[in-house]
User: Which sequence fits this backbone?
């Protein structure tokens, strides 16, 4: 029967079948690790509440779902502080509602989701956020929710967005306070561009590298293989769910795996920055966040 089809079409069909089988195999292997990997997030630490600090509505759906899914499975109370309403296009009021809808999909209580209402933290690639202004919002949320762990972007900010990087600096600055002593800080590791869009196969490579390099000791990892959860959560942000974000959900390694590093240890994944402009993750601020320099006055 195949002789009735042009050879190139047959070969392409075979390629698609093999590729699909390979991706499925990677998903099954990730699922196996997900079921058997001990202490994948937080090591042996016992915690009941985690605060995730993001920059924009949809960050939680694009970057943090493996972490959120793991925490919800462990019945940890997840709180989200989003530092802007995503009002760059004048639809901040819509995006606030979309964030609440995404929280519903992810099983996060709406009372545990807050969008900072500050004119000093406006969404935009060219908007500069002062770390002290971010600190005010982070401190307010810590006092309100009393988390055991705070999770945010690392220094590069996954995509290199200035708002993500400013979020990192502000959270690190906030965590210098003596009043936050004992709260663990974890940073979402920015993966290299050639790994970032590798889907399940490169998520598996990332996991194997993490295990082989021994970075699991200072850091943490979260795995999830339910691509439907990512699709539904991102779909709740319907104003942002354009074609390239649909591709992002399917191809992004962040849909399947999160590597979380403690600030003092940074990351052991080489060449993690897609561009050379970001500083090393062992900056002065991250050393301070881990208590190796003096606290805020």
Assistant:
């Amino acid at each position: 029967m195949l002789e009735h089809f042009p050879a190139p079409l047959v070969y392409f069909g075979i390629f698609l079948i093999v590729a699909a089988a390979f991706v499925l195999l990677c998903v099954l292997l990730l699922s196996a690790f997900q079921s058997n990997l001990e202490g994948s997030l937080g090591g042996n630490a016992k915690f009941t509440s985690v605060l995730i600090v993001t920059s924009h509505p949809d960050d939680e759906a694009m970057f943090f779902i493996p972490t959120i899914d793991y925490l919800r499975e462990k019945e940890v109370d997840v709180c989200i502080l989003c530092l802007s309403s995503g009002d760059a296009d004048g639809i901040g009021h819509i995006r606030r509602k979309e964030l609440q809808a995404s929280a519903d999909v992810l099983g996060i209580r709406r009372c545990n989701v807050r969008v900072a209402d500050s004119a000093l933290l406006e969404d935009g690639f060219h908007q500069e956020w002062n770390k002290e202004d971010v600190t005010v919002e982070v401190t307010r949320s810590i006092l309100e929710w009393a988390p055991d762990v705070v999770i945010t972007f690392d220094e590069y900010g996954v995509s290199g967005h200035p708002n993500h990087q400013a979020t990192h600096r502000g959270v690190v600055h906030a965590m210098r306070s003596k009043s936050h002593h004992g709260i663990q800080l974890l940073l979402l590791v920015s993966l290299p561009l050639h790994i970032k869009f590798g889907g399940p196969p490169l998520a598996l490579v990332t996991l194997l590298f993490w295990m082989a390099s021994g970075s699991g000791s200072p850091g943490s990892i979260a795995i999830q293989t339910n691509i439907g959860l990512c699709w539904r959560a991102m779909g709740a942000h319907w104003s942002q769910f354009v074609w390239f974000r649909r591709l992002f959900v399917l191809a992004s390694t962040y849909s399947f795996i999160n590597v979380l590093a403690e600030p003092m240890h940074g990351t052991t994944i080489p060449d993690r920055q897609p561009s050379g402009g970001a500083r090393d993750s062992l900056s002065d601020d991250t050393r301070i966040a881990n208590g190796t320099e003096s606290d805020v006055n």
